[in-house]
Each structure stands twice: as structure tokens, then as C-alpha cells.
Write a structure and sequence with these properties.
single chain; about 110 residues; 2 helices; 6 strands; elongated
Length: about 110
């Protein structure tokens, strides 16, 4: 059995519904991962994941308001002796400070 860990960033624009902004909210967004790093041990991957925070920015454009979410995630991929692949996921701590500041002027 072989395990491999990937740490990466996913950026997505999500509807401005604050209760929907939770860890893992970009999983179903269809966004393409970037800044991918691969590790052989879980400890190395967690150390890398802890260097980053998921950041959420409120965006206001003409007739459009949304959240820009830059989420850091870690995937664990397990390949057993038969070649079957199993995946698991973890996410970085979420920083909502930009949202707290935006509460003063949100429409």
C-alpha cells in the first residue's frame, strides 16, 4: 500500500451567502488546484498546510457581489496492492477577518 499527500490552493468565486463560507466550501466549485506540492508523509504535508490559511475576500462589482475564496487543502491518496485508489481531504484554518471588516459596509 502506498500513501501520497498533496497540498494545494483552490480559488473560487462563491455567492455572497456568509453561512455557506465554511471549511471545504470550494470542494464542489469545479476550480482547478494551483501551487500543488506532493509529500510522502502526512507529517510533512500537515506542516506545509499549517503554513497557509484559507482567506475569504468580499468583492463588490457593478451589479455583482460575491466572495473570493482562496482555500488551502490537503488530499491523502492511498493506492492499495490491487491498484484501488482512495482519497481523503483536510483543509487549512479559515481566516474570516476580511469578512468581519466588511460587515460595516456590506449591502
Amino acid at each position: 500500500m502506498k500513501k501520497q499527500y498533496s497540498v494545494y490552493k483552490v480559488s473560487a468565486n462563491l455567492p455572497m451567502l456568509r453561512d455557506k463560507i465554511v471549511p471545504g466550501c470550494t470542494i464542489d466549485s469545479g476550480a482547478v488546484p494551483s501551487e500543488v506540492k506532493v509529500f510522502d508523509t502526512r507529517e510533512e504535508a500537515i506542516a506545509e498546510l499549517e503554513k497557509h490559511k484559507t482567506i475569504v475576500y468580499p468583492r463588490f462589482e457593478c451589479r455583482k457581489a460575491y466572495y473570493e475564496v482562496n482555500e488551502w487543502r490537503m488530499d491523502e491518496t492511498v493506492i492499495d496492492d490491487s491498484g484501488n485508489v482512495t482519497k481523503g481531504c483536510d483543509v487549512a484554518e479559515m481566516d474570516l477577518s476580511e469578512l468581519d471588516d466588511a460587515d460595516d459596509y456590506m449591502p
